[in-house]
Amino acid sequence: MQFRHLTFSAIGPFPGTHTINFDQLAASGLFLFDGPTGAGKSSIIDAIVFALYGDVAGSDSDRSRMRSSYAPASQGSVVDLVFTIASGTYRVQRAPAYLKKKVRGEGTTPVAATAHLWRLSESVVELRQWEQGEILASKVSQVDRELKLLLGLTREQFVQTVVLPQGQFAQFLKMKSTERAALLETLFNTSNYKRFANALEDGAKEARGRVKAACDNATRALHAWLDIDGVSDQFPHLAELVLDPDDPAPLEAIAAADAALAAARDEATAHTAAQSAKATQASQALLRAENLAAAIADRERLLKARAVLEEQAPRIEAARAKIAAHESVALAIDRLRRTAAAREALAELALPAAPAAVQEGYSSLEAAIATQEGVAEAAERMIDSCDQELAGVDTSLGALAELATLEAGLPHRRAQLEDYATEAAALRAKIADLETQLAAYPGKAADLDSALQAAHALAASTPVIREKLASQQAAQVTAQRLADEEAKLVQARAALAKAFNAHRAQRDKLRTTTDAWRRSMASNLAATLRDAQPCPVCGSVEHPAPARPTADSATLDQVQEEEAALAPLAAQLEEANQTVTALDASASALRSQLGGATPESIDATISALNADLAKATAAGENAARIELERSELDGAQAADRRALGQAREDQRALAERIAGMDAALEADCARVADGRGDFPSVTERQAALAAERASLTELRSASSAAASAARSLDDSAAAAAEALAAARVTEAEALAACLPDAEFAALKKEVADHAAEAASIDAQLASERLQVEGSVDLDSARAEDASAREALSQANRAEAIAAQRATASSTHLARLRSAQQAWKMISDDAGPAVRLADLANAGQMSLSRLRLTVWVLLRRFEQIVDRANEHLSRFSFGRYELRRADEGRGELKSGLGLEVIHHDSGPNGDTVRSPATLSGGETFYTSLALALALSEVVQAENGGIRIDTLIIDEGFGSLSSDYLQTVMDTLGQLRSAGRTVGVVSHVEELKAMIPDRVTVRPLESGGSTLSVSA
Known about the structure:
This protein is of the alpha+beta class and 1014 residues long. Helix 8 (191-226) runs antiparallel to helix 23 (778-840). The relative contact order is 0.14.
């Protein structure tokens, strides 16, 4: 981190605005904050820490001290810091929260804290135009979040490594191991090692999981084998087996048991085969006995059935006689039945209702049907009467056809009259609309006259718009002058940069002379030595080998000459700065004249005014258009008047047409009324005649059917008489011999079944199977078969159990062998990952019990201690040395503890001391050695946080002159490595040693001010 530029107003004891150019101040690598105690030197450090973290440097200080109590109420407090880190250059601006006195009345008003953060480009940094940049955040919380990501250090770590305020300089020396570990983890970015260790642990955890899963799988396979039915009882000694991936004995024991189960299965199979042969023999003997017993029983049953059939023979002969008599009269019975059906059909014949005109013939036909005599003649007469009446009805229907058509068209003609009435109403509405439109024309004419007047008024505003346009064009000229002034300002800044470079060159010469003077202090001091007078350094009165000047030696007078040469260059730099300020003020005045307007906004206003001017110009042209519209309105009014006249003429013609149609409709309605007679309509009279015609037609058809039925009856009666004569029986005898259908069918079936059953019994008795006699002992054969089958069933169950055990044992043994092999393979593969994770995370296999991140920090801490000892050896003239504390001792168990070795401390030689036992001066230069070493190691570490600047705010007053010179020489050497050290002190000797400084002095009116010498 490198500070570039700091500006603050109304901060701490400073009521005014002050700027510190760190690029100039820190060019020599060493600068001083000088001033009396309490003047406000530490407040500058507070301003830097506040800008970055929104808080002050000291842990025991209050951020409310940021607001200056000496500043007027109208002046706000603000800190503006430009700094460079590895990711680029940034500018942060913060204003603290405070209570502001009210302008009116008593009390205070809270002023909220604000913050802004910008990223600055390389061109902006080169031109030192800090006010330009890309805004990154504009709220306090956003700025805090962004800076936390950019800086990589907390406020506590920042004040321990970069800015060391009063009371906290020795914190790193006196930290506990855990606190020092947290700081070092941030500075050296050990997150990669932590992620690597975590990744190893995750891998080991996964590997352990795979090993456990493989172990569980093998154990489940073992339990599955032991859970086979009967295995635990048969092999109880195997229930306590414990598997081990490297021990084959448990598998060998289970394999032996598996072989025993296979042998038992084979023995059971052989026993089952023997029992099966015995059961087959017993079953065959039982089958033979059962067949013989069944043949004997069947013969006895058939003999009994044949005796029963012989007893039924007389009844079967009687049935055959009835069947022959029924069949001889069957034809005559069929003809008699047909005659009866024809007579019944004639009797059931129903005639439809008859019209009055044929009622006499209808009555004669009904009487003939009732007596079944003369039906055909009466029916013929009825048909003739119907034909005569049908001819008269057809004539009447023909006469009514025209009137029906006329009657059907009457509704349409009435609807047409209604349409004409509607059309007449529409004409009346149209006439009313035209009259309304004609009444509205005067208002429309007035509106157009008003619009014409407005167009003339807008055209009249043209001069005013032209005046405003001229004013904006003048502002455009002012904007151009501002651009010219800004161009001169760029040139003035270039001259300022040239003066700055000349001033910096002389300042570098002064620094070189000052460094030479510092290196020549021994020879300069030797020049002041006098014989027999004590040396101001060692106190000796003897000076055997005083230092001699060298070619690059310098005196204090030469330093002062270079300082005098720097003064006119500083004046030139100030003059160039004033020129820039004057041009900047002129540019500000021009900006004030523009009132915030920009060339773009002026151009936009001019464009808008030009548009207004165009509108005003166009308004004059619109007047002619409106006058044309006024003329067109007069034409439309005349056209509507003509349309009104035409509508009234159409209304008159339509009224005449409606009157003619109404008279014709009335005459046709009278004709239709005459034609319908007593009926409601001609159509209904037609319907009545049509219904009468349909009735006559139906009656004629029924009469024809009656004639046909009478002829069919006569034919059936003649056929029946002929059939009775052929059978030589009377009708009564035929009816007596005829059997009902069901009885006839039953007799026929009974005779056929008797004959079939007798034939079947004779055939079965004649078969070879039933040529048997005697008896058989069936119970004895059944008992022997049941015994053989039970023995076979028991043998099958025993074989199934043995086979199931042997098959299950073989399957589970194969699974167990596979699981055991997988367990061993996975266990062997997981071993290296588990051991490596234990080493990285201080597990059981780690001998040092140090995590990887701690081990890395130990190596870095050892580098810091080694580098610090190089500085400490010079600072303490070889008296003190730092050493990392041993492991396993209380809080030092992390290995990040510190102890001090005091060389040549007495007759007992070197002693080991705690850092807490060091004196104030010893603590200061030991802490300084650690701070420098920490900064150097961090900067050298790839990927770490770069620390380019170190500011020290205490301790130099506790050093004697010889220690002070040694410390300052070391600090002066840091610039060769690109390092910068700022010293906050009031020690007078440091003013001569450090020419680049910020001097803080109190004001008589209260508060403080500062000046910069660089």
